[in-house]
């Protein structure tokens, strides 16, 4: 080959060297912490993390999976692995694109490569887009989940593939998904039992974000479809809504609010339901929401929120 081509190839190799090394160099103090987690817990505590360093204050005695929805943090990965917890990627993609099988294959390969490079343990697929029943997208979505699960399970030993679904299977926000097919195709469904008042289609009137009776109706419907309770993880909100009361006299406008949120009492009722009906576990959107400051009252409240996640056995 001409000398110029050889030089170009060498420069290209040098430029790629840091990227190639990333997949082989473990960032943890102990190399074994870069190995995928193999253990399957009896009870799943699935934590969404959106970035920052508040994860250092989480209750790691409970956590089994962390879904990284913020910037990748190798320190978080190493620490989670030291506690026996999985760390998984976020998987989001346009529903229109996945109709093409070639695109699906390429998307899965990219995600798998990223997971391996970052020493992660799987992927949480978070696609909350409209799908029409029995449309090409309907079938493609199920195929994507199945193909992703097969690839991850084959390539990363012990890996976990999960899919986020609405609080009810009844086409919430025009999402008609093949729920039984998707549940069969992945490790479990994370049920987003919050925003049960549609923030998209209904009028924004003050009401509970995740009322107990409505929440459990969603699980009854999923189970009635034939989905095994052990394929369902209950998502709870660690955030609330502050509604300013309107239609008041001008003298009082803005002074009155309704605030709706879950607290340890409401969460403990849901945790009891999980135990009574044999669901796989619990999780929250999102773990960063609590006050992890040194303030004594905040510390006590935060500890109580973590404590009630596990049902009393």
From TrEMBL:
| Key words of the record | Glycoprotein, Glycosidase, Hydrolase, Lysosome, Signal
What processes does the entry annotate via GO biological process terms? chitin catabolic process; oligosaccharide catabolic process
Under Gene Ontology molecular function, one entry of this record is: chitinase activity
Q: What family is this?
A: Belongs to the glycosyl hydrolase 18 family.
Q: What is the lineage of its organism?
A: Eukaryota, Metazoa, Chordata, Craniata, Vertebrata
The record ties this protein, via Gene3D superfamilies, to:
3.10.50.10, Glycosidases (3.20.20.80)
Q: Where is the GH18 domain?
A: 1-313
Protein name per the record: Chitobiase
Q: Which GO terms describe its cellular component?
A: extracellular space; lysosome
Report the locations given in the UniProt record: Lysosome
Record InterPro entries:
Chitinase_II/V-like_cat, Chitinase_insertion_sf, GH, GH18_Domain-Containing, Glyco_hydro18_cat, Glyco_hydro_18_chit_AS
Signal peptide start and end residues: 1-23
């Amino acid at each position: 080959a001409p000398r110029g081509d050889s030089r170009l190839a060498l420069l290209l190799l040098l430029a790629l060297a840091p990227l190639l090394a990333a997949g082989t160099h473990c960032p943890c103090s102990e190399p074994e912490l870069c190995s995928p987690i193999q253990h399957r817990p009896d009870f799943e505590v699935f934590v969404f993390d959106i970035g920052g360093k508040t994860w250092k204050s989480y209750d790691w005695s409970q956590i089994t999976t962390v879904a990284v929805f913020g910037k990748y943090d190798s320190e978080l990965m190493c620490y989670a692995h030291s506690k026996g917890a999985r760390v998984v990627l976020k998987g989001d993609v346009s529903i229109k694109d996945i109709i093409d099988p070639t695109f699906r294959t390429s998307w899965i390969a990219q995600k798998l490569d990223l997971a391996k490079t970052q020493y992660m343990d799987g992927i949480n697929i978070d696609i909350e887009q409209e799908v029409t029943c029995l449309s090409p997208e309907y079938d493609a979505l199920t195929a994507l989940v199945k193909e992703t699960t097969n690839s991850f399970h084959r390539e990363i030993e012990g890996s976990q593939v999960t899919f986020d679904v609405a609080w009810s299977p009844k086409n919430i926000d025009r999402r008609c998904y093949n729920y039984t097919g998707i549940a069969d195709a992945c490790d479990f469904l994370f049920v987003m039992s919050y925003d049960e008042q549609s923030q998209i289609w209904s009028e924004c009137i003050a009401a509970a974000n995740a009322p107990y009776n409505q929440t459990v109706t969603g699980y009854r419907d999923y189970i009635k479809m034939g989905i095994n309770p052990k394929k369902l993880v209950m998502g709870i909100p660690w955030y609330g809504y502050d509604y300013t009361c309107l239609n008041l006299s001008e003298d009082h406008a803005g002074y009155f609010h309704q605030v709706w949120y879950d607290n340890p009492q409401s969460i403990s009722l849901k945790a009891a339901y999980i135990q009574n009906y044999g669901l796989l576990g619990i999780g929250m959107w999102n773990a960063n929401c609590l006050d992890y400051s040194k303030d004594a009252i905040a510390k006590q409240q935060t500890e109580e929120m973590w404590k009630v996640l596990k049902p009393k056995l």
